[in-house]
Every structure is written in structure tokens, then in C-alpha cells.
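ingest -> validate -> predict -> emit
validate: passed (alphabet ok, no gaps, 344 aa)
predict: started
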Amino acid sequence: MLNDRQKKVLFCVVNEYIKNRKPVSSSRVLESTIISHSSATVRNDLKKLEYLGYVHHVHTSSGRIPTDKGYRFYVRSISEIMKETDISKNVEAFPDYPQLNVDQLINHAALLLSRAIPVATVVTKPRTDTLKISSMRLHKTSDDYITVVLLTEIGMVDTQTVLERVDEDALKNIERLFNATLVGRTIEEIKKHLKDPESQQAWKGTSVESVFDILRSIIEESSSETYVIKGLENLISDEMIDQESLRRLVSILESSSRFYGFFEKYGYVDETKVFIGSEHSQKEMNNFSSFIVPYKVSNETIGHILAVGSKVINYQKTLSLINYIGNRLTELLTFLSRLGRIQK
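emit:
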């Protein structure tokens, strides 16, 4: 159990190490705080903090640096400070809505965060299986080809052009039938509908059946998740991150199959979470800190923002910014969902 003075000493050690990236001595603690005690008292406090696993020596004669446990204490402490602080006013806002499409919003969010703080940012694109279909359009692009366009409630579009000879009148009938069946349903619900033999029976032998496989293909494609990465150069230039750890992380981020397996190890994330070093389930993340925030449409989580940086990072600024951007994405996408106003 730490007393108030020891908590101040620990907070100071972590804060000073993040600012200067140098081991923190007892004299430095006294210089940078209003603790009115002797150097000997602070040295004893540092010894206790080391014994309890909050800090450690690099060399016997050097100052202390925080452990993962020390960083965790610091993050808990600044969470209280953040309740009284609004850092978002210093951040370039998203453009006034809604001039961007969904892909542009996702890219803008990732770029904004990676430019504001020294992190690599990954933004997963919306999980379309939870979004409702707003319309389906079939266009005859030539005598032998038709283009199928599927539009979701927030304006995300999936298209596919296929070889299919269907006359114009039949195409309009198929479009009406599909819209009567699909609009207002989520892609997840439609996938179940397409697998139901009874739901397909009514269309057997009709022109609708010929487009059925096309629709199934689009639905399956639309529910496959993708993501955007920005700011890897921030990690490459950070001297606190060893190159082997960075190489392993980059190899994960550049492969979608590896990334989603890696991301699942963070567990269920429906609110802002921070993972520091050894707190990660992923062994390759011992030298990093991860910040994750969900973004939503009408309280339904549809994607996440992941920021990865050195453990020696400005936690208050990073948490404030990632929360701000997550909230703005939620606000914008919910707005688009409700009003359907989007640049197509």
C-alpha cells in the first residue's frame, strides 16, 4: 500500500521518464515536485517502489525507470486528471459533416491520430454484417453484363459486375423483389435468409434465381473486414523501440490473416482500453503500449481504432486524442445512418 507521498513520487518518476527518457533520480524528483521532504526520504520511497515492482534500476548507480506496473499506476492516475481536461480543442476537427464518404472518414481518422502523436494507427473498417441494407440496384451495363450495387445505411457500397444475360424488364422485377426482401435487414440477417432453402423455393425457376449466387457472393464479400494503417514511420524513428520487436509487429500488421488473429487477443473491447507491455496477450507486444477505442452506430460497435506506440509515450494526450477521434467517428457515422446523407 502506498501513502500519498509515495504516490506522488511514483507519478513523478513516470512523468519525468516519459518527458526526458532518462532514469529519474531522487534529486530530480525533488526538483520537479512540491514534496517537502529530504532527499533521504525520497530515496527510501524509491527503494520501496522498487521493492513493490513499480520501478527498477538500469544500473545500481543510476536513477529509476518505471516498470509496466508503474506505467499502469500512472494511467489510472491520469484517467482522473482527464475528466477535468479537454485536449480535443487543440486538434484539427473532422470536416463539417458530411462531405466525406466512409472510406475517407476512416483514412482521415487514422492519419489525424498518427500525425498528432508518435503512434502507428490501425482503424478497422465498419463491420458491415451489423449494418442495415438501404437499397439494392441492378444495372444492365451491356447485353451480357449486369452490375449489382448494394448500399448500407451509412453509405458503404459494394458492387460487382457479372456475366448474366437478363432483359431490362426482368432486371427491374428482380430489383423490386430483392429490395422488398432485403431493405431494412442487416447483412447478417440476409446471410441467414440466403441459406434458408424455404426462402429460396419461391424463386426456383424464375429469373430471380439466376441472380441469387451473385447476391450471395456480394454479401459474403461485404462482411469480410478490412483495415487502414497509418504512422508506421513513427515507430521506425522511435529509439525506444528495438528493431526486432518492430519487425515482428510490421509483419503482423501487413497481413490481414495475421492481424485479425492478433487483434482477437485483445479480447472484447466495447470501451477505451490500454495495454502496457507485459499486459498484452501477444508476446511480441512486450515493448509497446496499445490504446483501443471502439466506434459505433446507434450504440452498436462496428469498428475499432488501435494506436500502438512505445511504452514511453504521453499517455494523457494519446488517450484524449483516441477518445476524441472515436467519439467523432461515432457521431459522424450515426448521423449518416440516421439521415442517409452521404457522398456516393
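The first helix runs from residue 4 to 20.
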